[in-house]
Amino acid sequence: GPPDLLAVSESGAQQAEISEFLALRRQTDPYVFGDALFTEVSPVSTPTGILALISIPHPPTPAATTGSCVLLEAIQDAGNLGAILRSSAAAGIADIFLGPGCAQAWSPRVLRAAMGAHFLLRIQEHAALDQVIGGFTGISVSTRLDAAKTIYELNLTGPVAWIFGNEGSGLTEATATLSRQAVRIPMPGKVESLNVAAATAICLFEEVRQKAAGARMHLAEQGK
Known about the structure:
It is elongated, with a radius of gyration of 21 Å. Helix content is 33%, strand content 17%. By secondary structure, it is α/β, with parallel strands linked by helices. The strands form two sheets. Strands 6-5-4-9-7-10-8 form a seven-stranded parallel β-sheet. The longest helix has 28 residues, at 196-223.
């Protein structure tokens, strides 16, 4: 929906991209600040020339989640959370469930790291992860360093509920036991673990790869 408030700097109002945006938002008259004042109120050191106040959306909690989704427990770093949201949107995930201890999804740092992914996702904060997993009809998958299977051995062609935990301690035991599958990402290099945002991207795009391969095989069979 339209922003509740818009503010632009004097120099920003002269930029073609901003002026075109304002022309599309005629129902919201912007405040125009002098450049020095705008720099003072901007939350970033190098402002782009436009600020907006929006109402945080609160999508209704779905009765059941049928497509692939991402569940996060205690992801505390705003940069990691934003990167996970961005990768999820890029992989075609629609639903994100944030459990206890996660960073605030709509904080400025998370918004900047996600680069617009928020507007492609249904984000549920303060979600009861056990209830989401309990009502999910596909497979639920978590990553563990000591898991017997690798991510590449798992069939990901159906709906998947991906579960990722805290940057340092991973998933709590209570949440980990709810997962129906535990896998590891093979790491031939001499590092102990992957950043959670990197691990999420690897998992999500392995699902994308498998689904694309399955679609190609289906088309090939139809062509015979």
